[in-house]
Amino acid sequence: MKKNIFKISTVAVLLSFGLISSCSDEFLDVKSQENIAIDDQASQSPEKYVNGIYGMFTDWDYAFSWLGVTEMISDNADKGSSSTDNGGDKRDLDELLHSSTTGSIEAMWKRFYKTIVRASYSIKYTTESSITDAEKNRLIGEAKFLRAVSYFYLVRMFGDTVIQELDVPASYSVRKPKAEVYAYIEADLLDAISKLPTKNEYAAKDLGRATKGAAQALLAKVYLYQGKNQQAYDMATTVVNSGIYDLESDYATTWRKETENGKESLFEIQARGDAVAHGVQQYSETQGARGTGGWGWGFNVPSQNLLDAFNAEGDAIRRDATIIFRGETLYDGRLVPTSVENPMYNEKAYSSANLGSADGDKNIRVIRFSEVLLIQAEAANEIGQDALTPLNRVRTRVKLAPIASMSKDQLRLKIWNERRLELAFEHDRWFDLVRTGQAKDMMALDGKTFVTGKHELFPIPNAQLIQTPTMTQNPGW
Q1: Residue 120 above 50 pLDDT?
Q2: pLDDT computed for residue 357 by the predictor
Q3: Which helix (H) or strand (E) holds 79?
Q4: In this structure, which of 12, 28, 274, 321 has its CB flanked by the most CB atoms within 10 Å?
Q5: How far apart, in whole angstroms, are the C-alpha atoms of residue 371 and residue 366?
Q6: Share of the chain above pLDDT 90, in %
């Protein structure tokens, strides 16, 4: 059962840098007033403020801008759509020609900070409320988890970034070193872990809320991205040994309706398919098959490079569960006619019942158990622990031969490739390429020029720099 997510305003809060009166900080003066479903905000329960944080992950930015800066920019995907349709800035992102004025980058920068400030105010109001300590702990834990997600997205994209402390205006224009941002994320997640229930402790009506396991899994990933391999291994092992999560038996179902919030899910964005609490708005529509007989805009299509990677591994199961091919009959009996414009589309974005409706019913998987296993495997390989057991658990599900033995360097490459194939179109590929130092070579194989010393980070939006002259730009931009 999916929970009811309300999109609410945090009592007339001026979101992000707009809390300062200086005109130099107006760029992120974005009021979160859209689709207010509650008339008297002051009388509402703290839970509804927390619900409003979840709602920040369901808007248009995550349906289009997010696709551009996570998938189309990588070797997994091409812009798609019509050759004459740039998708705003999507062609630039696809060709690594983005800049500080690229709209998708600016949109995500604003979205992350809107979410962070909403979470921070939710924590403040919950702390000051008269609800029980148990209720406070859970709601604060949820808010801190969601704030950590947003900061993690920020630090991966921009590196050094602003840590927003409520009522401390001087902090709003100073970018903190990446290490400090990661320390802040870790602190939020450790506190969330101490406060959140496990998945099986939630009532059915609350299924889909942040859990202890979700916070542990995200923390394992945060450690991995910093090269803290022992901590990543220990935290991933904690999740694996909890007994709460497992792989779905059939990989093809992992992004389908029947497995939403299932045993493999640690955290996903909830969807209902209507305007009260839609999923990521237009997520399926923007990626649906385009042209005669299609149902969408045709953006973010699988690249030939990705198809070749599946075929090179002999990975037919994940290939066919990830890619819709022109002319195929889908699992629900729908024929994809040969008249659609692009030869391939993203099957993980496909909604059988909702198709290309703007208010999607597609739950977006953010963290799956298979990724935890691969985090465990990657970290284990680096610290001399058993990496083969978790790696082969992922491979066995898709009927690939188990890895018997390899050198540490060979196994590292195998695990990285396994992440690519297992998590294709789950919004990590670009950041994995940068994190592992593969970006320049892998993008060259895809016909794209990655500039070392520049493309590792996205540029701070130019509009922000104009409004906040003391803020520094990233190298190369």
Answers
A1: yes
A2: 84
A3: strand 77-80
A4: 28
A5: 10
A6: 82
Name the nearest CA neighbour of 367 among 282, 305, 428, 308.
428
User: Across the strands, what pairs with 162?
Assistant: 175
Tokens for 121, please give them: 């105010």
Phi, then psi, of 401 in degrees rounded to 5 = -60, 135
Residue written as token pair 């739950």: 363
d(CA 410, CA 354) in angstroms, rounded, equals: 43
Say yes or no to pLDDT of 473 above 90: yes
Is the pLDDT score of 19 beyond 50? Answer: no
| 322 three-state secondary structure | helix
**Side chain identity, residue 467:** Q
Cβ 29 vs Cβ 20: under 8 Å: no
Q: Is there a contact between 242 and 259 (Cβ–Cβ < 8 Å)?
A: no
Closest CA to 364 of 179, 177, 149, 197: 149
In this prediction, residue 277 carries a pLDDT of 60
283 vs 57, 269, 299, CA distance in Å? 11, 12, 10
Burial 388-410 (b: 16+ CB within 10 A, else e): bebbbbbbebbebeebeebeeee
pTM of the model: 0.91
What number of residues does the chain have?
477
What are the pLDDT digits (tens) for 348-365?
Answer: 999 998 887 888 888 999
Residues 6+ apart with CB under 8 A from 307: 319, 323, 344
Token readout for 298 is 């045709």
Cα distance between residue 289 and residue 342, in whole Å: 7
Q: Could you tell me the pLDDT band of residue 112, with boundaries at 50, 70 and 90?
A: very high
| Ranges of H-type helices in 46-132 | 46-55, 65-67, 90-94, 103-128
Q: Which two tokens stand for residue 193?
A: 């872990």
Paired strand residues for 267: 367
pLDDT (average), residues 166-179 = 81
Q: Is the pLDDT of residue 24 over 70?
A: no
Using only C-alpha atoms, the chain has a radius of gyration, in whole angstroms, of 21
Provide φ and ψ at 151, rounded to 5°.
Answer: -65, -35
E runs forming strands in 250-363: 265-269, 299-302, 323-325, 344-346
Per-residue CA distances from 376 to 149, 152, 228, 230, 419 (Å): 20, 19, 12, 10, 12
What pLDDT score was predicted for residue 142? 98
Mean pLDDT of the chain: 90
The answer on pLDDT for 143 being more than 50 is yes
What pLDDT, on a 0 to 100 scale, did the predictor assign at position 378? 98
CA 234 to chain centre: 23
